[in-house]
């Protein structure tokens, strides 16, 4: 896997329990703020394959707006049915106020 980092925006753009969407070479990602930490997950519910962008985020869980599956934004783990497969997660860091995600391709 490449060790290159991709700049996807300002860290100030994400409020607590908020998210920022990004596309890295055709892969849709969400960067989610949980407290002071940022987490990067694939923007695709593992139950139905549809985007999670705009989903409610509560207690470091993202909730699929269609069928209510909960996922842990820290680990990607599927916490409730109808999803059973985890979300892909990606390394994320902040440098000079910019959000950097490790290039997944």
Kindly state the percentage of residues in helix. under 10%
Which strand-content bin applies to the residues? 35-45%
Q: CATH superfamily membership, which one?
A: Rieske [2Fe-2S] iron-sulphur domain
Strand order of the largest sheet: 2-3-4-8
Mean pLDDT: 94
Q: What's the CATH C level?
A: Mainly Beta
The run of helices and strands is EEEEEEEEEE
What is the 3D shape?
Answer: globular
Measured between the Cα atoms of the first and last residue, the distance is: 7 Å
Number of strands: 10
The CATH topology, please? Answer: Rieske Iron-sulfur Protein
Radius of gyration: 13 Å
Structural class: mainly beta
CATH architecture: 3-layer Sandwich
Low-confidence stretches: none
Number of helices: 0
Major beta-sheet overview: 4 strands, antiparallel
Query: How many structural domains are formed by the residues?
Result: 1
Give a structural overview.
The protein has no helices and ten strands. With 105 residues, it is an all-beta fold. It has one domain (10-93): Rieske [2Fe-2S] iron-sulphur domain (Rieske Iron-sulfur Protein, 3-layer Sandwich). The radius of gyration is 13 Å and the shape is globular.
Features:
single chain, 105 residues, mainly beta, Rieske Iron-sulfur Protein, four-stranded antiparallel beta sheet, three-stranded antiparallel beta sheet, globular
Quick gist of this model?
This protein has 105 residues and is mainly beta. Helices cover 0% and strands 44% of the residues. The chain has a single domain (10-93), classed as Rieske [2Fe-2S] iron-sulphur domain (Rieske Iron-sulfur Protein, 3-layer Sandwich).
């Amino acid at each position: 896997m490449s060790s290159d980092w991709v700049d996807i925006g300002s860290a100030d753009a994400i409020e607590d329990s908020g998210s920022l969407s990004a596309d890295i070479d055709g892969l849709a990602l969400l960067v989610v703020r949980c407290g002071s930490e940022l987490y990067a997950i694939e923007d695709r519910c593992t139950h139905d394959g549809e985007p999670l962008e705009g989903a409610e985020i509560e207690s470091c869980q993202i909730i699929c707006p269609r069928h209510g599956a909960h996922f842990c934004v820290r680990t990607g783990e599927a916490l409730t049915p109808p999803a059973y497969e985890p979300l892909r997660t990606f390394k994320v860091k902040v440098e000079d106020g910019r959000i950097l995600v490790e290039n997944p391709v």
